[in-house]
Design brief:
globular; alpha+beta; 10 strands; single chain; UPF0301 protein; VC0467-like; AlgH-like
């Protein structure tokens, strides 16, 4: 099995699974045990402030900031995409400025930093051993190089359209 991550997966227009319809996935891990990523273009109808109130966490960020649906697997699990800062050894570095973390202590510090640049994804997209490779061969996904501008796109609803246009030229 080839190591694909990190990269972006763009759902084929023919992929009708409601979990992934018109989605762009940041592929974080891919090895012989399977693959894991987060959907970049699914904001949740709940703010970070609401999540923090329910979880009894301090919050000092943008009251309009939303959480994101990372995928259908384990929706109680938080995955943090961070722009800037210094990753720890257990974090996954994506490029020169972005990394993925699952650390609660990092999330707590980001939530009280008004200028922090991050996204909190609830849940993730997961594939068993060989499953993603098979879906790629079947044309369910197109693999595109990591594009840092897309990771925290201002208009996530248009991200899939931009990705499809970049593939088709």
């Amino acid at each position: 099995m080839s190591q694909l991550a990190p990269c972006l997966l763009v759902a084929s227009p023919l992929l009708l699974d409601p979990n992934f319809l018109h989605s762009v996935v940041l592929l974080v891990e891919h090895d012989e045990n399977g693959a894991m990523g987060v959907i970049l273009n699914r904001p949740l109808p709940v703010t970070l402030q609401q999540i923090c109130q329910e979880s009894r966490l301090a919050f000092d960020g943008d009251p309009e900031a939303t959480a994101w649906r990372g995928g259908p697997v384990d929706p109680q699990r938080g995955v943090i995409l961070v722009r800037g800062g210094l990753p720890e050894a257990e974090d996954t570095v994506l490029d020169f400025t972005d990394f993925i973390s699952y650390r609660k202590d990092l999330l707590e510090s980001l939530l009280i930093e008004p200028k922090a640049s991050f996204r909190l994804f609830l849940g993730y997209a997961g594939w068993g051993p060989g499953q993603l490779d098979q879906e790629l061969q079947e044309g369910a996904w197109a693999r595109v190089p990591l594009n840092p501008d897309w990771l925290m796109a201002e208009d996530p609803q248009e991200l899939w359209n931009r990705a499809i246009q970049s593939i088709s030229g």
